Amino acid sequence: MAKAKTPADLTITPRDVRFGRDTRYRRWWLNDDPIATAFYNALSVTFPKGEGFFVDSVRRFREGTPPRLHAEIGAFVKQEVIHTREHVAFNRHVVDQGYDISRLEARVDRELALTRDRPAIGKLAATMCLEHFTAIIAHELVANPAHLAGGDQQAADLWRWHAIEEIEHKGVAYDTWLHATRDWTRFRRWWVKALVMVITTKKFFSGRTEGMLDLLEQDGLRGAGVKWRLFKYAFGRPGMARKVLGAWASFFLPGFHPWNHDDRSLIGLVDSEYAAARLPAVA
């Protein structure tokens, strides 16, 4: 079995915070930019059902894990449940601004339906891959304030809070995978995770792009020019997709582990704002 490299002194701390309950976001809440707003709105629509999938996939393998991982899975579940609640609330703001998100939600349903009859270990592998996506996006969101500059305060705070918790628990699904596949050969483990990541990446990019274009079309923005603007936003400036590309590729390297890059210092940049909301450790 490959040895997990999660820091021994890491603490995963759920923070019970509520955002945007007494405010109304602008339609283009991120810097009055429809492209930037669609980028995050489309991503948020995937979270409630997607994070439910993550929780179910990881929790299925909790029994029999070492005590520390057992506790980390419990904390991971608690964090994801709160994330789901807050993105449900955020998505209500999206709807309140006149957007129809039913087609985006239907696509998420179709994507999840494809996994329904798959083995549990396959669902865990998909979760591990998607958790890598959320972790590297989270890192970039906190490391580079330009991504959320000009955003409505409560909305930007939601994304920053979510980001630090994604960084904090970024190793849980991976460590669960290592435990669940402890009897596999190293090559078999690498081959399966690499294959699943390639498939997951294709579905992630195609699905989220379709969702962004759907929301932009509802703003009357369509055509090749809009697609080019979206491409420039993702790969040019601020360039979220471009900036996470190297971290995404590191997943395929022998010896990869999410905590090979210890970026807990980023958590400290935001965590103090939610000190009063920290929940007790989950055993």
UniProtKB/TrEMBL annotation:
This is Metal-dependent hydrolase. It comes from Sphingomonas japonica. It holds the Pfam family Metal_hydrol.
